[in-house]
Amino acid sequence: MPTYEYECLSCGTHFDMFQKMSEVPTDKCVQCQGSVRRVISGGSGLIFKGSGFYITDYAAGKGKSKKPKSTSTEAPKKPKKPKKD
């Protein structure tokens, strides 16, 4: 259930209410019973739950350092000739 922030139009009090999304928004101040308006807030940050959100979850077999292809200036090795009897 989300927490909604309200501001009283009469006394200026800010207060939060823990309500269901399907619940009708409150219309009275908790201090002076005046009219209120719901304040749009940034809310909480994005929350990832479960596996698969960390780089270590996908690291098995991937991203491991492999030997880079030969980029040296050495001459390529010649194939061995078979020995004659």
How are the secondary structure elements laid out?
Layout: E1 3-8, E2 14-18, E3 36-39
Chain oligomer state: single chain
Contiguous uncertain segments of 5+ residues: none
Radius of gyration: 33 Å
As laid out across the biggest beta sheet, the strand order is 2-1-3
What is the string of SSEs from the N terminus onward?
A: EEE
**Highest-level CATH class of one domain:** Mainly Beta
Q: Could you tell me the strand content as a percent range?
A: 15-25%
**What's the helix count?**
0
What is the molecular shape?
rod-shaped
**Span between termini:** 88 Å
CATH domain fold name of one domain: Rubrerythrin, domain 2
Mean pLDDT: 76
- Sheet with the most strands, sense and barrel status: 3 strands, antiparallel
Number of strands: 3
Describe this structure in words.
The protein is mostly beta strands and 85 residues long. It has a domain at 1-43: Single Sheet (Rubrerythrin, domain 2), CATH 2.20.28. 0% of the residues lie in helices and 18% in strands. The protein has strands at residues 3-8, 14-18, 36-39. The protein has a three-stranded antiparallel β-sheet with strand order 2-1-3, with no helix packed on it. It is rod-shaped. The model has no long low-confidence stretch (mean pLDDT 76).
